Request: fold
Amino acid sequence: MSDSAAVSNLVSFIQARQTILDNVAPLGCEQVGLLDAVGRVLAKDMAAPWDMPLWDNSAMDGYAVRSADCLHLPGVLKVTGSIPAGAVADGITVEAGCAVRIMTGAPTPVGCDAVVPVEETDDGQTVVTLLQPVKKGQHIRVRGEDVACGALFVGAGTMIRPPEVNILANFGKALVTVYRRPVVAILSTGDELVELGTSPVAGQIINSNALSLAAAVTECGCIPRIIGIARDNRESHLEKLQEGLQADVLITSAGVSAGDRDLVRDVLEQLGAQQLFWKVAVKPGGPTAFARYDSTLVFSLPGNPVSTMITFEEFVRPALLKMLGQRRVVRPLFKAVLRDGVKKKPGKLQIIRVRLEKEDGLWYATSSGNQQTAILKTMVDAQALVVIPAECGAVAAGSEVDVHWYGNYCDLEGAAE
Reply:
């Protein structure tokens, strides 16, 4: 079979990701404590139960005044009272020609229509002299000016960050309703694998993919469950895959190609899983498969560590974020200029690990090293991934390409998801 004919039998990268997202929906909801909701996605709109602020109050330490008494400078007013923070202003009125000392956050008294900061006075105790012009309404926080009673203040689909925690707490929301976090089972396959803590001998490999995937699942905000290693026999695969299918998502690593010991797809089919695609026109990561078993999503990823991580990034991560209720699940692309040329034949979308630097307002992408899928150091050194469309051939150095960030890079100017 020719290369072009073989590629024509593969599902495209875009089709594969769309198929995945078409089969994903946010999970059910649960109510959690406010701090436990950090990083989670709100499942219900939140309307204000009262005005915020709840009363007109001072934005400064200073004096509550009537602006009509402050038309001429220097102005001299009699100090007739004081309202500290936490007090109420009942029974206190600003009379003509008078001022009331007031602290930040304290309610403004009757008659007050402006607050003069103490820095703009002589800080008098019984008589105060005003040194700066006074504008009506200055330094007064008006009731409801932040959020009016009944108004939406945080919408469903919002990720809860410290600002959301603050405003939710201000409205007394000790418990909030968020989307449930998916439980993700992680299964590695192969007789050659040994667990971390074992010193490998010839022919053995530490099961690092399971830990890498668990880290990536955790970074997404989901709950990883490493369920061990399926050995290269049908009985072991049956046992482990049945266990994994009890989770919301099952991710398998290796055993998904076409070799004699690649049993994952056959055993999943035997268990009743519906395969939605197998083999994607992407490099690396071609043998990737996606299936459903009732409500469980099954991602079968290649075993080479770079392929495992990149296919998780491009296919699994968007699905998990959508299950969590997030709205933006695919990292946005931006433009960068290639420092190194890329050898490529048309037919498969190609993903290149790169480092980025910015010069004169432009991003420049430099290969992070050997692009073979067993070279882990290039993933450690990569800050971003170049995405070269399937229809493109070789790309020369100096060409502009599409790039997206890999991981949580915030150390570079302009870095953002």
Q: What stands out?
A: Residues 8 and 347 are 8 Å apart (CA to CA).
